Amino acid sequence: MIISPRRKRVARLRELMERGGVDALLVTHIPNVFYLSGFTGDSGALLVEQSRATLFTDSRFTTQAGEELAPTRIGLKIVKGSLGAAAAGAELARRRFRGRAAFEGARVTVAEAARMRKASGGKIRWRAVVGWVEQLRRVKDEDEIERMREAAQLGSKVIVEVLSLIRPGVRECDLAAEIEFRMRRGGASGPAFETIVASGPRGALPHARATTKAFRPNELVVIDMGAILRHYCSDLTRTVYLGRAPSRVRQWYRAVAEAQVAACQTLRPGAPCAAPDSAARDVLRGYGLEKAFIHSTGHGLGIEVHEEPRLGRGQSLPLDASSVVTIEPGVYLEGAGGVRIEDDVLVLPGGPEVLTDAPRDFLEL
């Protein structure tokens, strides 16, 4: 008998619950609900117990939830009025639950927790737990990896297509809009985040929003974009120069490219999550650019564009096989601009697999 991936995920979560002394776990973070149940609605909560699991949602999603839950053996309860934590608390109270219950402490507000406790009649002792489902999400199964390959390929295809549109006079916001249009035309449900297009001195802002600024000759342009395809994200960055780049800009790009290669070479199961960051900084230090690198080297990627693990200083957790992470060193120089190169990388025992395949050579347009 073939067991659905989501039933396997719920089974692994139950193992964590048992080790953590929990009989019921309320999952309210929508990406976690989707990961475990397949439910794609934007309003719902999943109550996982050792012998059953129940999705709570409202009547807008009756048909949708029924279809999406069919392969999982997860029950469905359509509720009126208060949804989520309160509905699950009321259900446990109705069934005279007397076990040990927990909720996602990083996802439930103080007000929601109060409603949940009140709805459960004050007889259930709730505790907060953090990161249990996210821990499972770090390791991707075959279906997830295939989806992420497709999302990475779509992002790479779009960024190559728009290179011919980058020229003096084009506005940042117009290029960003074209990128998002082409991602949707390629099948994406939307951008993984607000597309970043930053030119000239604005490139020194790592998370600059696209503005009405027009590209000018002899300046850097940083493009950071990602697609959501079949519910999974890609995330990649390329930097180009409009005109013939001076030697200092070429050196910046060379330093970042070498830093990215060095970081990728550390990606192996069991290596500390700080290793890619340390390797990238060592390279940039050799170029005198370490202080111009002002963010971590990467992060996990999946259903959300920022997931565990974080690849930065002080991160001692080991990398997992079948994790997908970004590797994105950059340098940012106030008044001059920035350079960032970012790719999505699958961690494998035999060596990393780079999922994004857009050219990384320095382009002078």
Description:
By secondary structure, the chain is α+β, with helices and mostly antiparallel strands. The protein has two domains: 5-137, 3-Layer(aba) Sandwich (Creatine Amidinohydrolase, Chain A, domain 1); 142-364, Creatinase/methionine aminopeptidase superfamily (Creatine Amidinohydrolase). Helices cover 34% and strands 21% of the residues. It contains ten helices and 20 strands. A six-stranded mixed beta sheet has the order 4-3-2-1-5-6, sandwiched between helices. Helix 7 (142-162) crosses helix 8. The mean pLDDT is 95.
The geometry reads as elongated
Strand order of the largest sheet: 4-3-2-1-5-6
Mean pLDDT: 95
Q: Helix amount, in percent?
A: 25-40%
Q: Per DSSP, what share of the residues sits in E-state strands of 2 or more residues?
A: 15-25%
CATH architecture assignment name of the largest domain: Alpha-Beta Complex
Tally of helical segments: 10
For the biggest sheet, the summary is: 6 strands, mixed
The total strand number stands at: 20
N/C terminus separation? 56 Å
Radius of gyration: 23 Å
- The secondary-structure class comes to alpha+beta
Which structural traits does this protein have?
Creatine Amidinohydrolase, about 20% strand, about 375 residues, Creatine Amidinohydrolase, Chain A, domain 1, 6-stranded mixed sheet, 4-stranded mixed sheet, single chain, alpha+beta
In short:
By secondary structure, the protein is an alpha+beta fold. It has helices at residues 5-19, 30-37, 62-69, 85-94, 110-119, 132-137, 142-162, 172-185, 247-265, 275-286; strands at 24-27, 45-49, 53-57, 75-78, 101-104, 126-129, 190-191, 196-199, 220-225, 227-229, 232-233, 236-241, 298-300, 307-311, 324-327, 330-333, 337-340, 343-346, 353-354, 363-364. The protein has two domains: 5-137, Creatine Amidinohydrolase, Chain A, domain 1 (3-Layer(aba) Sandwich); 142-364, Alpha-Beta Complex (Creatine Amidinohydrolase).
